[in-house]
Design brief:
It contains seven helices and no strands. The protein is mainly alpha-helical and 186 residues long. It folds into two domains: 114 residues; 36 residues, no CATH class. Helix 3 runs antiparallel to helix 4 and helix 4 runs antiparallel to helix 7.
């Protein structure tokens, strides 16, 4: 059971290292420091540090068989999971509704609908819009007249969102196996 927990832990840590490296190389750390929006570096690096420290302690448990090390490893993986949940919570986007009258003051940007107005008030749906606002519609019609039957593309299968899902399930599997191994160590 302890070896299975170690294998799950290493696989989960590998996925996590890939995600952390991708976040840092694509400017996530720099962007967070500049804007203050997103996951604080302390949470992201604390999550990774707790998981890797727990893995090292778990390897010590496998080597020595001391149940104290097993429970310390379980505690650290539980802390890493808690910080991981914080990371997912801070990273997951959610819609924010504009306050009444805020769309007009802010120039109509943001909000649940992305343009500041509900769909029935956006371009092409009437309202107090100027004819200039219908340029997008005119360009779309011109494009359809120029090429009425564009080549159809096969829809691309996007597997990128499965990476954090696999990481989360790996963490839960690691926790379960580590608890079972720690219980059986006595």
């Amino acid at each position: 059971m302890a070896i299975a927990a170690m294998i799950a832990w290493v696989l989960t840590a590998s996925i996590g290292a890939y995600m952390l490296r991708t976040w840092v190389t694509r400017g996530g750390l720099r962007r967070q420091r500049a804007t203050g929006v997103g996951v604080p570096p302390a949470v992201a690096f604390g999550h990774a540090s707790a998981a890797l420290t727990g893995l090292l302690i778990w390897l010590g448990f496998i080597d020595t068989g001391l149940d104290l090390l097993a429970w310390l490893g379980v505690t650290l993986v539980a802390g890493a999971i808690a910080l991981g949940i914080c990371t997912v919570t801070l990273w997951t986007p959610y819609p924010v509704a504009d306050e009444p009258g805020e769309a007009g003051r802010a120039g109509g940007a943001g909000g649940v609908w992305g343009g500041g107005q509900p769909p029935h008030e956006q371009v092409g749906f009437g309202g107090d819009r100027s004819p200039r606002d219908n340029i997008v519609t005119d360009e779309m019609i011109a494009g359809l007249l120029a090429d009425p039957f564009p080549a159809s593309r096969r829809p691309r299968l996007r597997l990128v969102p499965l990476i954090p899902v696999a990481h989360g399930f790996g963490a839960l599997t690691t926790f379960m196996l580590a608890v079972l191994a720690a219980i059986s160590a006595r």
